[in-house]
Structures are given as C-alpha cells and as structure tokens.
Automatic annotation (TrEMBL):
Domain of life: Bacteria
EC number: 4.1.1.36, 6.3.2.5
Record-given protein name: Coenzyme A biosynthesis bifunctional protein CoaBC
Cofactor detail note: Binds 1 FMN per subunit.
Keyword list, A-Z: Decarboxylase, Flavoprotein, FMN, Ligase, Lyase, Magnesium, Metal-binding, Multifunctional enzyme
The species this protein was found in: Pseudohaliea rubra DSM 19751
Involved pathway(s): Cofactor biosynthesis; coenzyme A biosynthesis; CoA from (R)-pantothenate: step 3/5; Cofactor biosynthesis; coenzyme A biosynthesis; CoA from (R)-pantothenate: step 2/5
Gene: coaBC
Biological classification of the source: Bacteria, Pseudomonadati, Pseudomonadota, Gammaproteobacteria, Cellvibrionales
A molecular function (GO) term: phosphopantothenate--cysteine ligase activity
Cofactor(s) listed: Mg(2+); FMN
Domain DNA/pantothenate metabolism flavoprotein C-terminal per the UniProt entry, residue ranges: 10-218
Region feature Phosphopantothenate--cysteine ligase, mapped onto this chain: 15-225
Length: 225
C-alpha cells in the first residue's frame, strides 16, 4: 500500500466519493428512498485508495464494510449529504458523486407517526438540492464527476447532465439493462466528457471501479496538468 500511495495514478490527491441512497424522513418511522446498495461507490473508494488517493466516503444508509484506509462519514438525507460534501471541499481535488440521491423530500416531516385514515394519501414533496451541481459550481471547484442512471436515451441524457451541471466527467449507467445496475454485482458504463466518450466493458463492480478511477486520473491529469 505504501508503494501505491507514492506511485499510484492518484498519488497525493484527495478524493471524496458519495455513495448509497439517501433517506428522506416522512415521519418518525417512515422514509422515501432509492434503490442503491452502495457497492459501486464503495468499490470506487477502494480503487481510489489503491491508486494512492486520500479517500473520503460520504455514505447514505448501506450495509457494507468501510474499505481499509477510507475516512467514512455517514449521512441520511440529501441535505445532510450536501452539508458533508461542502464540508469536505476544502480538502478535495476530485469529487465523485456516485450516490443515488432522492430528488425530492417530503415538504414536512410529521412529528408523530402518520395514522391511516382515508383511502388515499397525498404527499407533497419538494426538490432536494443537487449535490454534484452545487459542488461543480463551488469556487475553487474540484474535478467533478457525476453518474447518470437512465432507463432510456442513456447517452443523450448523460451528456445533458454533463453540460447542465458543468461536470468534468459523467459515468453513464443503463439501469434498465439485464443483470447490471443498482443492486447487481456487474455493471457496464460509458464515460462522457466535454469532447469525448468511451464505453467500458461489462465486468464486476471491483474491476470496473479500477477502470473508472484509471480514466478519471487520466482526465484529471489532462485537465489540471
Ligand atoms: N445527484 C446529486 N444530487 C441530487 C441528485 C443527483 O448530487 N439531488 C447526482 C448523482 O449522485 C449523480 C448525478 O447527480 O452523480 C445524476 O443523478 P441522476 O439521478 O441520474 O440525475 P438527476 O440530475 O437527478 O436527474 P433525473 O433523476 O431527473 O434523471
Ligand atoms: Ca435523480
């Protein structure tokens, strides 16, 4: 590990990875969330350590062991994840947003358990802050990497996210494809950046994470020298 720390593709760099789902409380016993095992984000954090980076993992609720040599911060809601991400920015060269953040949260958190009464219940939800877009708009900003989880028109939507959020790289993930995506062990992605794209082979999340980190290191070096 010491040799990698000195000679890895991310030697001396500080990387922050978000992972897992967020949980948006509805009342003391209920929440809204997304499907996300956290495996991809944790595999990315492991790959960052192996590449020599000082690695922080900001994780929503998952049932995974913290990878060796990773500083882990546990959060619940998107607002918590944003606060932890902004707090990490002063020591962050590369920010990788792998978390499945809930896009909306309940407008109010009921103080007591909501009792069933009517045949229908209407919830009012409000938009959550976009963590990766907020990070990419910070000054100074880290090299900022987002994911795009799509069930259709993958590359078009992913390039839209790259441009709209002003990201340096997007990892586009087809979550409708058979046997890959959020809860599986395999994954296949296409990387997009301003002016290029590259499809990576379908493989286990561990080796895919190493490939993604290798490419992020190369694009970081190209962008920042
Ligand atoms: N993301 C984020 N904060 C949010 C929502 C998403 O940081 N509130 C990040 C995710 O971690 C991911 C990227 O944005 O890196 C794209 O997430 P995705 O859900 O695919 O895109 P959205 O911008 O939320 O758009 P939509 O869900 O409508 O496709
Ligand atoms: Ca979303």
């Amino acid at each position: 590990a010491a040799a990698l720390f000195e000679h890895g593709a991310l030697a001396g760099l500080r990387v922050v990875v978000t992972a897992g789902p967020t949980r948006e409380a509805l009342d003391p016993v209920r929440y809204l969330s997304n499907h996300s095992s956290g495996k991809m984000g944790f595999a990315l954090a492991t790959a960052c350590v192996d590449a020599g980076a000082r690695t922080t993992l900001i994780s929503g609720p998952v049932t995974l062991e913290t990878p060796a040599h990773v500083a882990r911060r546990d959060v619940e809601s998107a607002e918590d994840m944003l606060a932890a991400s902004l707090a990490a920015l002063p020591a962050c060269d590369i920010f990788i947003a792998c978390a499945a953040v809930a896009d909306y949260r309940p407008a109010q958190i009921a103080g007591e358990k909501i009792k069933k009464e009517d045949e229908q219940l209407t919830l009012t939800l409000v938009r959550n802050p976009d963590i990766v877009a907020t990070v990419a708009a910070a000054e100074p900003r880290p090299f900022t990497v987002g994911f795009a989880a799509e069930t259709r028109d993958l590359l078009a939507y992913a390039r839209g996210k790259l441009e709209r959020k002003r990201l340096d790289l997007v990892v586009a993930n087809d979550v409708a494809a058979e046997g890959i995506g959020f809860n599986s062990d395999d994954n296949a992605v296409t990387l997009l950046w301003p002016g290029g794209e590259e499809a990576l082979p379908r493989t286990g999340k561990g080796s895919l994470a190493r490939l993604i980190i290798e490419r992020i290191a190369a694009r970081y070096a190209a962008a920042r020298g």
